[in-house]
Amino acid sequence: MKADLKQIQAPISSEMVEFEKKFRDFMKSKVKLLDHITNYIVRRKGKQMRPMFVFLTAGVCGGIQESTYRGAALIELLHTATLVHDDVVDDANYRRGFFSVNALWKNKIAVLVGDYLLSRGLLLSVDHGEFELLRIVSHAVREMSEGELLQIAKARKLDITEEVYYTIIRQKTASLIASCCAVGASTTGASEEVIERMRLFGEKVGMAFQIKDDLFDYGEDEIGKPLGIDIKEKKMTLPLIYALNHASWLEKKKIIYLIRNKNEDKKAVNQVIDFVKKSGGMDYATQVMNTYLEEALDLLKEFPESEYKTSLEALVRYTIERKK
Amino acid sequence: MKADLKQIQAPISSEMVEFEKKFRDFMKSKVKLLDHITNYIVRRKGKQMRPMFVFLTAGVCGGIQESTYRGAALIELLHTATLVHDDVVDDANYRRGFFSVNALWKNKIAVLVGDYLLSRGLLLSVDHGEFELLRIVSHAVREMSEGELLQIAKARKLDITEEVYYTIIRQKTASLIASCCAVGASTTGASEEVIERMRLFGEKVGMAFQIKDDLFDYGEDEIGKPLGIDIKEKKMTLPLIYALNHASWLEKKKIIYLIRNKNEDKKAVNQVIDFVKKSGGMDYATQVMNTYLEEALDLLKEFPESEYKTSLEALVRYTIERKK
Question: What mean pLDDT do residues B62-67 have?
Fold first, then answer.
């Protein structure tokens, strides 16, 4: 079944509207500057995939509760905090090592706003005695920061293994979707076993999601983000890692030379992309992605059929069929 | 009674040694890069005032427990996270708006390490089901980030009131010491009333501490941090706020002109300092500081005498008698 996000949202559409209203309330502060910034953040909101995972898993596990809203808000506050913290560096990259005083203010503010949003999320759970939510989300914060740091530590080592690649994407990407699903289940009062199954389900979806994202860089669909950005940044992802592992010694040496020394050269980057395509790197990554997807869907089989389950399955497929 | 930090530490000296060992363990990670950084952080540790407040208040409230160590570690992890996040900007200021790629990496890493340390602290409490500690500390994170943002928002408005000044220092500085004392009390199983009294005690100590810090900038002791830094950064603190509020219209206009336009000029900065001294700004700030101090000590009166209490009183006096 192919579905667009609007169809997928159908069983939780009123909840999503209410959630958005509540989320705005949760972010309110006494400091005007902060309200300006959080209003700006709310306006540029994305596809709302994370709250959708929370509400749909809650639906599948027995029904959306009042605490499901807080769970979704906690995740969304955490995710927003991460995005704001990421801006610290993105802004910097854009400016190529050059900062205006204004940009410095923004940096300081970005760090503080991120910390503030995180604390608001925590307080939301603390004030309602929702210990399990705190446990799930604290783990996610740890995993995500550790995963990003692992990526930085390994970034320049071009001999990164498949194993390390999986560890990085599990920590930096999959852990958040895993948390969404565990939180959704947890807010329905589900058993530890069900919460764990939903966490694993979300983790597998997250793995597939990130592999899809990495495939975009090789221009799989010829739209989406510009080609070869990862190669330019010497970021080793699954298609390239596979291709290098299955290349001859000489070919490997040549490709590594190109990535190390010619990564700013469009022609060399295209050579690397061609190499990956010819070596079957994209096919392999696609196959791994599909395996994660099927394993995720398998984990849903034990739950009774419902409109929530149908939508959740469609949402999972959407994550790998999306065009950007 | 005048005492140095070593004397003050005497009743909790073995606890402080054990704490340091445990704290190192709490910070350990699977990522080598992270361990390098946290080792570096541990080595440049300061006076350990925060753990001292936690252990001494626990001692005063009935005795140090196993959870007191976790409470102290939680606070210290949070404080370290804040310091690391602050480095994002300090580094930047030092470089006067110019960044190397290396500095950018460090920025990204600083944000991530801060987030990581915060999550470790949270997990420490989550894993032991210490809900009250989480409540206290989440409030502190919120207060501190809100306070810093309030300071940024008001920083360029030179007509800041005494009220706003107190709000800023209560949030950005006093809230952390307040948390130390509330956490210390909480880990002994004290009543809500006792926890709240200790929180208020810590808050008053923190207010006195920050006013002392702001007084240093006017060279009260002729040592410590360089003179006039706050004026150079157009940061309005109590001595100056008082002096401006008690100046003639003409004098006020002149001083504001100097701060706004001549803040980089050493002579002009000295003129502002002289103005503050002559207007009694420092005497007033000292008096307010002493009032907070006495109010703090008053709150301790209801607790039975003990070596912990004697040390805690000495620690409070130390915060305003320190030379830097």
Answer: 93
Cβ of residue A91 closer than 8 Å to a chain B Cβ: no
pLDDT of residue A103: 56
Contact A76, A23 (CB under 8 A): yes
B129 to chain A: closest CA residue: A131
Q: Are A171 and A147 in contact (CB under 8 A)?
A: yes
Residue B93's pLDDT is 45
> Hey, is the C-beta of B144 within 8 angstroms of any chain A C-beta?
yes
DSSP state at residue A11 = G
Q: How many Å apart are CA A82 and CA A59, to the nearest integer? A: 27
Residue A92 predicted with pLDDT over 50:
no
- Find out whether A307 and A11 touch, Cβ atoms under 8 Å: yes
Closest residue by Cα to residue A33 from A104, A109, A101: A109
More reliable by pLDDT, A155 or A198: A198
Chain B residues near residue A88 by CB distance under 8 angstroms: 88, 107-108, 111
- Residues in B touching A100 (Cβ below 8 Å): 97
CATH of segment(s) A5-307: 1.10.600.10
Greatest Cα pair distance, chain A, in angstroms, is: 63
The shortest C-alpha distance from A150 to chain B (Å) reads: 6
What superfamily in CATH does domain B5-321 come from? Farnesyl Diphosphate Synthase (1.10.600.10)
Runs of H (alpha helix) within A187-237? 192-216, 229-232
Q: Is A233 on the interface with B (CB under 8 A)?
A: no
DSSP per residue over A166-194, as a string? HHHHIIIIIHHHHHHHHHHHHTTT--HHH
